[in-house]
Amino acid sequence: MPSEIPDIVISRLPVYLRALERLSQEGQEVTSSHELGRRLGISSAQIRKDLSHFGGFGKQGTGYKIAFLKDQLRSVLKVEREWHVALIGAGDLGSAIARYRGFADRGFHIRWVFDSAPEKVGRKLGPYTILPISNLSETVRANHVKIAMVAVPAEYAQAVTDTLVASGVEAILNYAPINLKVPDNVHVQYIDPVLHLQRMTYYLSE
C-alpha cells in the first residue's frame, strides 16, 4: 500500500464503506462505481481512482462484489477489529456521546469516561462510572489506549490533549471548538457543528 495517500482519499473510504453496508442490507451482492457515484454524488472516475490506491477490487464490466469490497475497506481502515476508546468530558455533550450507540456498532467501544468535576466523579453515566481526570494518564498507559474523544470546554482541551499524547494516544476526535497542537504522529479530527452551520449559511438566499 502506498505510504503517501492523500488524506482526502482516506476521508472518502468510510463514505464508500457506509454505502456498501447499505447496499448489503438491501440484499444486493454486486455494485459498480457508477451506482456508488449516483448514491454518493461522487464521480465514478473519482471512486475508481480512490480505490486504485489500494489494489484492484473489481473487474471492468462486472463491477465490485460488495461483501469482498466491504472486507477490503474495513481492513484498509483497520476497523475489522474492535477499538477501545477513552472519553474525556461528562458534560451535556460528553453525556450524549457516551449514550450514543452508533460507535459500538462500528467497532468503537467507549470503555472509560473521565471528568474533572468532583461532583460527577463516581456517578453513573449510562453503563459507565465517571472517573477522575487525575486517573487519565495511568488508565491510558495501562490499557494501551490509542483513541480518545475530547468533549471538554475549549480552555481545557489542549491540556487534556497534552496528557493524552504523552500517555500514548495517537488519534483524537475533538469536539472542543479549538485547534489542537499535536505531534506529527498524532491524528486529530474536529467535530464542530457551528463551523458547518457557518459554512452552510454562505449558500442561503437573503
Summarize the structure.
The protein has 206 residues and is of the alpha/beta class.
Describe this structure in words.
With 206 residues, the chain is of the alpha/beta class. The protein folds into two domains: 7-76, Arc Repressor Mutant, subunit A; 83-195, Rossmann fold (3-Layer(aba) Sandwich). The protein contains nine helices and eleven strands. The strands form three sheets. The protein has a six-stranded parallel beta sheet, with helices on both faces. The protein has a three-stranded antiparallel beta sheet with strand order 1-3-2. β6 (124-125) and β7 form a beta hairpin. α1 runs antiparallel to α4 and α2 packs across α3. The radius of gyration is 20 Å and the shape is globular. The relative contact order is 0.09. The mean pLDDT is 93.
What is the strand and helix layout of this fold?
Elements: H1 7-25, E1 30-31, H2 33-40, H3 44-52, E2 58-59, E3 63-65, H4 66-76, E4 83-88, H5 92-99, H6 102-105, E5 108-115, E6 124-125, E7 128-129, E8 131-132, H7 136-142, E9 147-150, H8 154-166, E10 171-174, E11 187-190, H9 193-201
Parallel strand pairs: 4-5, 4-9, 5-8, 9-10, 10-11
Antiparallel strand pairs: 1-3, 2-3, 6-7
Helix pairs in contact: 1-4, 2-3
